[in-house]
Amino acid sequence: MAAAVLTAAYVAASLSSIAPRVAWDGAYVRRQGTYAFLSYVACFLVVSFVLRTHGQVRRFVRAMLLTSVFPVAYAICQRAGFDVAVWNNPTPWRVTSTAGNPIFLGGYLDARDHDRANSHVPLEHVGAKPPSTLERSPQHIGAKPPRARWSEAPESTLD
User: Is this structure's pTM higher than 0.85?
Assistant: First the structure.
């Protein structure tokens, strides 16, 4: 529902904009207009309606993690001084990789790190409320529970 409202707001803003082409295509540098947003919504809908089994989720997370290999390798080359491209980088002491900005690279890699960390959480624990510290025994305070892999979660949680 929220995605539908946000999509409607994007389309309405683009149609009523004083510069509808810029609103649709985005600005010169980032190109993050309504067209890009609609592409993101389409990807979200495909992923949310297609991924149904643990195997599909596991393969999707692995594919997302593999997409970070090239940007990380390129960032390492930049840091080592082997950058083959000339970039207009206002902060040359920070690597940008293919993101064009160190902050964007950090956000992208942080999202991949969350994908990796969440790939081992069983589905029955997603959204579960952790017990309060009063419900825990003293020897468990501060201890982390063991993590299970996606493949160990029961299939009945996928319905």
Answer: no
